[in-house]
Amino acid sequence: MKVNHLLSLTFLATTLLIGCQKDFNVKEPVQSAQSIDQSHYYEPSKAYLASLDALTKKSNLSTRAACNWIELPAGSIDALAQAVNDACEGGVIYFKAGTHTENKAITITKRLYLVGEAGAVLKFKSQLGAVTPSFSFIAAPVLHFMNAPRSAVLDLDIQPLDSDGSTAILFENSNESAVLSCKITKFQSAIIVEQSDRMTIMRNTIICSNSWQTGESASGESIVIINGKSAYISDNELSNALFPIWPCDKWGTCERNYTHDSYLGIILCNVPPGGYTLPSGKAVGSLSPTTGYKVRNNNSTDNLTTGYLVIDGANNNIIENNNAARNGTYDMELTTDSYRFGFLTPKSYNNTVNAGAYQNIRIKDCGDNNTVVGGIKVNTATDPCN
User: Fold this and answer.
1) Average pLDDT for residues 166-182, to the nearest whole number?
2) How far apart are CA 287 and CA 357, in angstroms?
3) pTM to 2 decimals?
């Protein structure tokens, strides 16, 4: 489901989002009654996360061979491309504290770790991405991991150099890669995943460009899984986006995220055919709507419309123990066939919702064969489905 430029113009009439408010109030999880085949799901192990965190420790510098650890000093300019070329497969490029400037986008085609020392800021020349006449967003990533499985971006503050930018990071055919503990600001799309399974996206702070509000663009997504099974998305804070988390494909986990001050919070949906155009010129969409996801223990507040939207054929998802407050329409909505975005988005079906500890969450269920346990159910006789 891709929002077109007409929808962006509609947002101009809407009051701008209110300021950021910390609100990580999530209570103990609730066990789902529905059986899930756990073999489909991926969660990074403690050992894996510890190995990535260890890369950020300065004491490791002396233990690295020159080929495997390349250090970029503060104030570096257009140094990353050469570092990528010189680094060994599985090597580390370490950004010292300070500002690093890149005037050209970088494509990475081997396993690499980009690691920032505390205070490292990586600024890229970028500009707002265009939209084709068929409403395909042209993703122009400043960091493009292409055929680079098991890569990672860690502890970096990534910003556009001058004005707002297009896309920060694109993972394409790069299974088991990760983005951890980064801050990404003022890009239309912060993280896009295409044909990359078992991704780890954790502990990031993402503040999107507001160009979707002003009508300059029709894109504003923090995390998009176009195609990529078993993604793991957790503990991120996402704001100022059109769609903060847009997880398509199958068997992902989305937990303990805080989405706020956006158009909506988490959208279980489908990127339509041709919704994004990759750097190769290929236009892609999701092969599957959001299917079999575990969406739990998240918090979604102060959004213009809905905290959690289940739409466009999203099915067989487990949505449990999610907090929500102060959203413009509903805290959660599971839709029937709808034309609200200007084209048909098919009904949601066979989803299971358990309000858990949050019995005050307002839920509108208009889908087919969904199960809703707890919460405050919207009366669809007086508030019709659309």
Assistant:
1) 98
2) 34
3) 0.90
